[in-house]
Amino acid sequence: MGNYTIMLTFKTEKWQEDIINKRLEIGRKIYNACLNELFKRYRTMEQSKVYRKEWKNLREINKDIDNCKKDDKKKVKLEKKKLLINKDLRDIKKKFKLYTPKSSKFKEALLRSVYVPMQHYFKKHIQQEITDKIADRAVETFYKYMYDGYGKPQFKKFGEFNSIENRRNSCGIIFKGNIIKWGKLKIPIVCRKNDIYVQTALGKDKVKYSRIVRKFVRGKYKYYVQLILEGVPPSKLNKDTISKGSVGIDIGTQTIAICSKKVVKLLELSPEIQNIDKERKRLLMKLKRSRRATNASKYNKDGTLNENNKDNWIKSNHYIKTQLQLREMYRRQADIRRQSHNKLAKYILSLGDTVYVETMNYKALQRKAKKTIINKKTGKCNRRKRFGKSIGNKAPSMLLDILDNKLKYQNKELIKINTWKVKASQYNHINQKCVKKAINERWKVLNYKGKEIKIQRDLYSAFLIMNVNDDLESVNNELCDKLFDDFIIFHDQEIERIRISNNKRISSMGI
């Protein structure tokens, strides 16, 4: 059974907010202590001769495997050796208390010696269950860095630890009768009687555990409780209707093409998001000038940072005010983006419950190009920037996560096709050939029934993605032939709609 979350506002007084802030600060210190201990163990392991020897062997074997051909017998032997080395590396990590099976409750045993003395000192404020959860959080973050290739985890600064939760609703943070009990602290929750969604959820499903969240909104902190409930969220007055059928989506960095049997759409992702680049740059420059003016001794005469000066940074009142403006701008953008993605996800599910999408590596698209290319005409270097700004603004990966979560409530999931084998942006189902095209070529010319027709590239890709075979590695040409006439009609209607509308068009649409 799945879980879902509802967020409600606290009805707090000043003294209650002070207690919550104090407990969040204690949680921050415990989190940093756990993370620090993990880093110590990791550094000690890296310096050990056994680990360095095994790691060197692994690198050499990986090089040999890359040099081998596909059907080489030597490759099979090398892969067996690689498995043995990986096993030895796991044993070394176990010795340094950095590896246990993820299926077991490894996190508690891993750091209990670190946080139990701290927790005992703060037991009036932070209970054992909550401390365990904080340790879980530190270990999960560190495991992502150590195994999954995520960035190095950072220690939480003062005021950055903004949420705390427990394991179950029976102890620690307890929700009962529209009141949150946390030790001696009792805080009422704003739960309106006319809020049908919340009342239905609380009446229908059991509260699994609670999470207290602090948000900085319009220059001051606001406090919320997130109730994690077991089950499926109630539909909002029959607006969350999910139709049956196949839907193909071709999602880019700024646009999304949607294709079903009855609807073809080419939409901008999060159209409500405003371009804040100019305002953001202006505020950052303002902060830089203020920082230099109030901390003159921290800089050298040539403008570079004086590394020998270890004095604390001074922040003026104007500096703090500008920081708050920037923070509020980011928060607003994030809220608008999430709301927009939720609306679009509901619309996609109203077209069909079997949703196909290409696998995309958005992190790779955000990175700068490795090679510096010189422009032959101008003699200058081309910019190495790629799609970082547009992905940061539109967050296409977030939309896919929201879609997948909504499908899971219906015991389904987002179906990801094999991008490299299907080649939806290159394939032509009429002559069954692949033709590679440049990114700026946004239209395809197809020879259909003796005529040449122009089809928008993203919409055609969505159409092909919708009609993939069950193996998710090839296009079903027969199904494409059946539905292509209807697709052309819907395609032409959508292109006309975009041309007539006064909305600003994205250049990647090619219209």
Provide an overview of this structure.
- With 511 residues, this protein is an alpha+beta fold.
- Among the domains are: 3-48 and 96-163, no CATH class; 246-273 and 333-509, no CATH class.
- The chain has 14 helices and 16 strands.
- The chain has helices at 14-47, 49-67, 73-95, 106-121, 128-147, 196-204, 277-294, 317-351, 362-366, 388-394, 396-408, 419-422, 457-466, 477-500; strands at residues 3-10, 163-165, 173-176, 179-182, 185-190, 207-217, 220-230, 246-251, 255-259, 264-268, 354-358, 415-417, 427-428, 433-434, 443-448, 451-456.
- Helix 1 crosses helix 5 (128-147).
- The model has no long low-confidence stretch (mean pLDDT 86).
- It comes from Clostridium aestuarii.
- This is Transposase.
Keywords:
511 residues; seven-stranded antiparallel sheet; 14 helices
Give the mean pLDDT: 86
Largest sheet: 7 strands, antiparallel
Number of helices: 14
Query: What structural category do the secondary elements indicate?
Result: alpha+beta
The portion of residues forming beta strands comes to 15-25%
Order of adjacent strands in the largest pleated sheet: 2-6-7-1-5-4-3
**So what's the overall shape?**
globular
Rg for CA atoms: 28 Å
Helix content: 40-55%
Distance between the termini: 45 Å
Summarize the SSE layout with pairings.
Elements: E1 3-10, H1 14-47, H2 49-67, H3 73-95, H4 106-121, H5 128-147, E2 163-165, E3 173-176, E4 179-182, E5 185-190, H6 196-204, E6 207-217, E7 220-230, E8 246-251, E9 255-259, E10 264-268, H7 277-294, H8 317-351, E11 354-358, H9 362-366, H10 388-394, H11 396-408, E12 415-417, H12 419-422, E13 427-428, E14 433-434, E15 443-448, E16 451-456, H13 457-466, H14 477-500
Parallel strand pairs: 8-11, 11-12
Antiparallel strand pairs: 1-5, 1-7, 2-6, 3-4, 4-5, 6-7, 8-9, 9-10, 13-14, 15-16
Helix pairs in contact: 1-4, 1-5, 2-3, 4-5, 7-8, 8-11
